[in-house]
Input
Amino acid sequence: MAPIDGTFDYDLAVIGGGSGGLACAKEAVNQGARVAVLDYVTPSPQGTKWGLGGTCVNVGCIPKKLMHQAAILGESIHEAVAYGWQVPSLDQIKINWSALTESVQNHIKSVNWVTRVDLRDKKIDYINGLGEFKDPHTIIATMKNGSKKELTAKNILIAVGGRPHYPEIPGALEYCISSDDIFSLGHPPGKTLVVGAGYIGLECAGFLNSLGYPATVLIRSVPLRGFDQQMASMVTSEMEMKGVQLHHKCIPLSVEKLESGQLKAKWLNTETQEQFEDTFDTVLMATGRYALTEQLNLDAAGVKTLSSNGKIVAETEQTNVPHIYAVGDVLEGRPELTPVAIHAGRLLARRMFAGATQYMDYENVATTVFTPLEYGCVGLSEETAAQRYGSENLEVYHAYYKPTEFFIPQRNIRNCYLKAVALREAPQRILGLHFVGPVAGEVIQGFAAAIKCGITMEQLMNTVGIHPTVAEEFTRLNITKRSGKDPNPASCCS
Amino acid sequence: MCSAMCQGLKSPVRRLANLRKAKNISTSIVHNETILVKNNDEFVHKVMNNEKPVIVNFHAEWCEPCKILTPKLKELVEPLPNLDLAIVDVEENADLVHTFEVKAVPAVIAISNGLVVDKFIGLVDTDMINNLIDRMSNKKKDDS
Output
C-alpha cells in the first residue's frame, strides 16, 4: 500500500541492474532522487550466474566483443607471416580456451566490482534480490537465501531485460547451452551446433569457428531477420568461406546425450522434409530472447500494456500506470541495444526528476553485427525503404572495395561491400548506410551522426575521404544499382 | 606535501572508527606474517592500532596486475622487522574500499600510527615500491 502520509522509501526503485536500469538510477541520483536498484540473476538451465551489470556486461556485448577480438587476433597471427613476421611453428598456434575464458571473466568481474563501488559512492541502495510487485508502489525482493525485503517507491522502473529462449524439443533444457553459458564455459566447446541465425547465433558461430571449434548453424527462415537481407547474405557468405556450415530452412528436432558424452542433434529441413543428424560436443541455442515480465507479478501493479510476446508497450517509456516506467530490452518494438537503453534511461530520469521534456529518438540507431567480417548499419534497410517510399523513389549507390591491408596476406575481398540507400529526388537524402567489412562498427559510428543531421548523397559525395581507410569508400560511392554498371573497383587511388 | 595529504586523508580514519561492528575477530598472531584482513575490526586492531607502520595492499583475484604486485610486496616486506603488510581483498571488504575511496586495484595505502601517509594506484615498478618501503620502515625511528 502506498504509505498514508505519502512518504515512500525511495523516489525511484529500479528493477534490473543492467544498462538501462543503472543509467536511469545514476542520472536520477544526479537530479537528487533517492534510488534503489534491485538486481538478481536466476541461474541458467546449465547453472550459470553472474554479477551486477546486466546482460551487456556479463553475457552480452562485452564478452562477445572480447571473444570476437580473440578470434581476429588468431587470424592476424597467420596474416602476420605474409608481412614478414617470423612466427615459429605456425601450425601449432591454437587457442587455450580456459585462458581465454579466465581473462574474459576477470575483466567482467572487474566491471561488476566497479559498478558496485559506483552505486555505493552515489548512495544508491543495491538489493541483490528478485523483484516483484505487491501493489503499484510496493516491491518485494526475494534474496538468494529466501529472505524477503519490502520497499515502497514513488516511481518504479522496469528494466529487467530478457533471457535466452529455449525451443521446446527433447534435450534442449537438459543438454544445451545458450549465450548465458558460452562465455564462461568450463571446458572447450569443441564441435558446436548453433541453433538460430540472428546476430547472437551468427556472432557465436563466427568466433567459435575462428578459434578453431568447427561450427554449424541451423537457420529456420533467413539469417539476420529484420536486417538488410543483401548484407546478411554477404555476412553468411563470408562465414561459409571461413568454414562455418550453414543449414538453411532447418529446425531442430531433438538433442540426446550419447554414452561418449557428446550430443546427437537431429533436425528437419522444412522445405525438403528431409531429416538430418550429426554429433556435436556442444549445442548452443540462440533462438531468440524473451522479456522477464512474467515473474514481476505485473497484475498486482495494474500494468496492462503487454504485447503478445510479454514485452511492455510504452511509447515514451511510461506504462498505463503513470508512475511505472520501462526501459531497455523489455520494451516492445525498440532496438534491443545497450546504448539505446542507456540513452533512454537517462532521458527518462531527467523527465522524472528535472522537469526535462526530451523524449528518446529511437530512429536511425546505428548497430553492428560482430561476425568474422563485421556488418555495420544505420537507418533503413533497402527492403524497408522500398516498402516505405517505393523503389522508384529510391536511389541505391553501391560498391565493392578492397581494403589495402587485405592484399598482402591475400585475404578474400569478395564480401567487402557497402551501399547507401537514398531518396531519388535531389539532394538525395540518405535513408540508410550499410557496410560489410573490417571494423564496421568504427566505420559506421560517425555516419550515424551524419544521418541524424539529414546527410544527403550530394554532401556525402562532396566529403573528402581519409586515405587509406575502408571508411572512405562511403565518400567514393558513385555507381547506382539502377545504372547496372559494375560496382567492382578498378584500382585504388583513382 | 605529506602533511597536506594527511590532512585530507584524516577523515577516513574517523569514518572507519564509526564502522566498528561486533564481528568475529581472527586470532592469527601478527609477527611478520602478512595480515589477511577479513573485516573492519581486524583492520582497526592490526593496522590502525599497529605500533609498526603498515603497507595496506588492496587486492582482487580477478586483477592481473594485483597478481604481480601482491607477491612482490610480500617478498619485500615480510623479512622486515619494523614494517607490516596487510592484504585487503576488495570483494570481501566493501566497507574498507568505500572508506579509503579505492576506485581501482591494485591500490597501496601506507598507514603509520593510524594515519594514511601515502597512497598509490596501479602497478608500480620495483623502485617505487622500494622507496615506499624504505620511507615506511624508517618512519618508526623518525617518530620516536
In short: The beta strands of chain B are 35-37, 54-59, 84-89, 107-112, 115-121.
